[in-house]
Design a protein that fits this description.
Blueprint: H1 14-21, E1 38-40, E2 46-48, H2 49-55, E3 60-62, E4 69-71, H3 84-96, E5 114-116, E6 121-123, H4 125-133, E7 142-144, H5 145-148, E8 172-174, E9 181-183, H6 185-190, E10 200-202, H7 203-311, H8 316-335, H9 355-366, E11 380-383, E12 388-389, E13 394-399, E14 416-420, E15 426-429, E16 431-433, E17 438-443, E18 449-457, E19 460-470, E20 505-506, E21 512-514, E22 534-536, E23 546-557, E24 566-573, E25 590-598, E26 603-610, E27 613-622, E28 628-638, E29 643-648, E30 653-658, E31 668-673, E32 679-686
Parallel strand pairs: 12-19
Antiparallel strand pairs: 1-2, 3-4, 5-6, 5-7, 8-9, 8-10, 11-13, 13-17, 14-15, 14-18, 16-17, 18-19, 20-21, 21-32, 22-31, 23-28, 23-32, 24-25, 24-31, 25-26, 26-27, 28-29, 29-30
Helix pairs in contact: 1-3, 7-8
């Protein structure tokens, strides 16, 4: 007979049902309803009663199926008997071997052909007839086995559950917290009295409620199962991505090393050509020397041979007639100069001392394969400061961990950080990886509002952090008396953002300067300042004219500054004087004031000097962590007379005047800031014309 699929258990066939639910996970024997009945474990696997007793040890029972250990107190009765298996056993017996079922009512081994649903017994023909005649069982529902074979659910195979204490049907349920079990009517009257705090309910009602609750839990578990399935699919795709990426990286390695090999082979050919060139030069020189010497040798031999021949003639008059010529020739050849050493020697070599080791070291240190096992849920992104403030440096510490929570310290590849500002714009920001557990993400937020920082590697998200940036405090106001400005104009200018040194920041509106990098990955251009740690205004001051502008300066000390460490500089300079040094102070056509750590005061002081002479000195704050300063300075340039006055605009006080400002060529306002790890400096232009 063809096996039937069991409704409600996916697509399991009857044989699969028997193997999965009716055989003990420990001994593989079939369950029965006498000694080897099924006991249900918390992992929802089951063991026969005998295996439970055999495997239980020291208050723990291991599951042979999933290897989980289940602790218990007392005896193994804490693992409940699973009586639902009785229904399933009858279902499977009818489906697989109905002809082998024996009557359970009589003592004869007669084949059963009926089943009483009320008594949960298989009956032979005779017992079926007797069942129909007896008054007690006459109204029972009896089904033929042939019709039972067509059933696709367990309704017809339900076993009546009897009270173990009173042998009566379990028709009630005690819903008391420490009871929670089916009971009979006698139990309700004897041991589960309502006046003793027991909550007696109809078993059908409780069963329906708990069935509905279980359905919801099944839905929850199925949802979890679908989520796990999705994760399995994701992991499968990730495995494929890992293998694909591995092949791509291997190809990249091959391509790069092929290029390196080509470079080496090219260099080898160049060196061999150099060898050929030197050989040709040396050999050519020697061959030319050899050719000249052979000619000289020939002349010498010919002269000696001629002279020897002359001496053979015994004719004095004839001899004396040519003797002078021969002697002159012999003397000339004897005294003729020639190099007695080769013009070139065999001195060609290949210099590669230390090349092999250096090459190996370079290849080992510069060519690496990295792999990150960072686990997204364990990524920690924490702000270093309590509050993020507009136009002030913000630093986040990023710690990547593996799936067990261990921080990663090895080479993890290129960490990417992307910042989303309140306007929805995104920008990549700089990440400082120094080989420690912590990576630093530092940037300057230009707007107040909600931000989000995303961290990733190869576009694989590793974590995100949402945070708020508070608006910057309103700069300290100016109390300057207009009468002191003598009708000067207030040019509305901004600071050059694209010309600023790469280690400082100018906000997009050009009004605020910060002495630390913005953190955004901007290309370095040749127009940027490379030495002067600042920038300059996009206006020029020319003669004749009077010009006035104000700058609010705020700083906060992060750590004590060391001897003479600079904080900021403000001033005027010719464009040609800039970028010669990290400051403009001391240049012949530059005038400035400098704030720095002052050794004598052991404080942060403002200095204005010219020609080696101190014109003004003021202590701004202590040199201690957390100390701050907020002050607005005014700058009045009379380009006609060459006078530059500096004001403490907050106090309407003139603090210094320089009378030697050369305005024969245009001047620009300059600002700069230093040592961002020790002090945070923010300068804001106040330039609007009040006319």
């Amino acid at each position: 007979m063809a096996e039937q699929a069991f409704k409600g258990t996916l697509t399991l066939t009857t044989s699969q049902l028997k193997q999965k639910f009716l055989c003990c996970s420990g001994c593989s024997n079939e369950y029965d309803d006498v000694e080897n009945f099924a006991r249900l474990l918390p992992c929802l696997h089951s063991l026969c009663n005998q295996c439970v007793h055999n495997l239980a040890k020291d208050g723990a029972l291991p599951c042979p199926e999933c290897e989980q250990k289940h602790e218990f107190k007392g005896d193994v009765a804490s693992f409940p008997r699973d009586n639902t298996r009785q229904d399933l056993m009858d279902f499977v017996r009818v489906k697989l071997a109905p002809g082998a079922i024996i009557c359970q009512s009589c003592r004869d081994t007669k084949q059963a052909t009926f089943r009483c649903k009320n008594c949960s017994e298989f009956l032979c023909e005779e017992c079926h007839t007797a069942h129909r005649r007896t008054n007690i069982t006459r109204g029972h529902e009896i089904l033929e086995l042939q019709s039972l074979q067509k059933k696709e659910n367990l309704d017809a195979f339900c076993h009546q559950q009897m009270c173990p204490d009173h042998n009566r049907e379990l028709e009630l349920y005690c819903n008391k917290d420490d009871c929670q079990k089916p009971i009979c009517f006698l139990c309700a009257m004897v041991t589960h009295k309502p006046d003793a705090g027991h909550d007696i309910q109809e078993i059908k009602k409780i069963s329906e409620e708990k069935t509905e609750a279980m359905r919801k839990r099944i839905d929850d578990v199925n949802m979890t199962g679908r989520e796990i399935k999705q994760i399995i699919e994701n992991i499968g795709r990730e495995v494929q991505s890992v293998r694909t990426l591995g092949k791509e990286v291997a190809t990249e390695i091959n391509n790069n090393f092929d290029h390196y090999i080509q470079t080496l082979e090219k260099r080898r050919d160049e060196l061999k050509r150099d060898v050929d060139k030197y050989v040709q030069i040396k050999a050519g020189t020697l061959e030319n020397q050899l050719r000249n010497l052979k000619q000289q040798q020939k002349r010498t031999n010919e002269a000696a041979e001629f002279a020897d021949q002359t001496l053979l003639y015994n004719n004095p008059p004839a001899f004396l007639q040519i003797q002078g010529t021969v002697v002159d020739r012999l003397d000339k050849l004897h005294n003729e100069w020639f190099d007695r050493e080769p013009h070139e020697v065999a001195t060609i070599g290949f210099s590669c001392k230390g090349l092999s080791q250096e090459f190996q070291n370079k290849v080992s240190s510069m060519a690496k394969v990295w792999s990150s096992n960072a686990y997204q849920p364990n990524t920690k992104i924490t702000p270093k400061q309590n509050d993020a403030v507009q136009d002030e440096t913000v630093t986040f510490l990023v710690v990547l961990c593996n799936y067990v929570g261990k921080p990663l310290t090895e080479d993890i590849g290129h960490l990417k950080a992307t910042l989303t500002d309140p306007n929805g714009a995104t920008v990549d920001v700089r990440v400082i990886q120094n080989g420690s557990e912590e990576s630093r993400v530092t940037f300057v937020p230009f707007y107040a509002g909600s931000y989000k920082l995303d961290v990733s590697i190869l576009d694989k998200p590793l974590g995100e952090h949402e945070f708020q940036v508070q608006p910057r405090d309103k700069p300290q106001g100016s109390n300057i008396d207009e009468s002191q400005l003598d009708g000067a104009t207030r040019p509305d200018f901004t600071l050059e953002r694209k010309k600023a040194h790469r280690d400082v920041t100018v906000t997009p509106d050009g009004k605020t300067f910060v002495n630390s990098p913005s953190g955004t990955l901007m290309e370095s251009t040749k127009d940027r300042l490379h030495k002067f740690k600042g920038t300059y205004g996009n206006t020029v001051f020319t003669s004749p004219g009077k010009f006035y502008y104000e700058v609010n300066i705020r700083y906060k000390i992060r750590s004590q500054l060391e001897k003479s460490n600079l904080v900021f500089e403000l001033g005027l300079a010719r464009r040609s004087e800039m970028d010669k040094k990290h400051v403009v102070d001391g240049q012949p056509h530059a005038w400035s004031m400098i704030c720095s750590q002052h050794v004598d005061c052991d404080a942060i002081c403002l200095h204005i000097a010219r020609g080696g002479k101190c014109l003004y000195h003021e202590t701004l704050s202590k040199n201690a962590i957390g100390c701050t300063m907020d002050k607005t300075f005014g700058f009045l340039l009379d380009a006609t007379s060459g006078v530059w006055r500096i004001f403490d605009a907050s106090k309407n006080k003139s603090i210094c005047q320089m009378d030697d400002v050369d305005c024969s060529e245009p001047l620009v306002p300059v600002v700069s800031g230093y040592n961002p790890n020790q002090v945070e400096v923010t300068m804001t232009l106040c330039t609007e014309d009040e006319e």
